[in-house]
Design a protein that fits this description.
The protein is mostly helical. It is built from 5 helices and no strands. The chain has one domain.
């Protein structure tokens, strides 16, 4: 396991992910969080009313939340360089999805806040993990 700054960076982003994805992992929290996001979207000039979600929409939202929680816990328990780098690449992928949905599919602009955190997390981890520590385990 790596120690020091690299470990703190990996765990820090994992902790943020744990908090946010936990809000999607449980149906009552997911409903409240989506309502909050649309309220914030309304303050940003967009629609404050969420479209109706079917059971399948909520299932995928909660499934994504559950997988996010598991991924965050894995990085909290074992903050190794390989997981940090995989997470950094995954953040670029997620940022690309957010940008595509916001700019070409009309998704709520409030999602741009998530775009910023995804890009920030990716670049922070790439920078912190740019060279393997002497005692790093892949």
């Amino acid at each position: 396991m790596i120690r020091g700054r690299e470990s703190r960076v990996i765990r820090g982003w994992a902790l943020l992910d744990l908090v946010v994805t936990a809000l999607f992992a449980l149906p009552p929290l997911a409903v409240a969080f989506v309502k909050l996001l649309y309220a914030l979207n309304g303050l940003a000039g967009g629609s404050s009313m969420s479209p109706p979600f079917d059971a399948l929409h909520w299932f995928f939202a909660c499934l994504a939340g559950a997988l996010g929680v598991v991924w965050a816990i894995a990085r909290l328990v074992e903050p190794v360089r390989a997981l940090g780098l995989v997470d950094a690449f995954a953040r670029l992928w997620v940022a690309s999805l957010i940008a595509w949905f916001v700019f070409s599919r009309g998704a709520p602009v409030v999602l741009l806040a998530f775009l910023a955190t995804e890009l920030g997390g990716a670049f922070h981890q790439f920078w912190a993990l740019r060279r393997p520590a002497r005692d790093a385990r892949w």
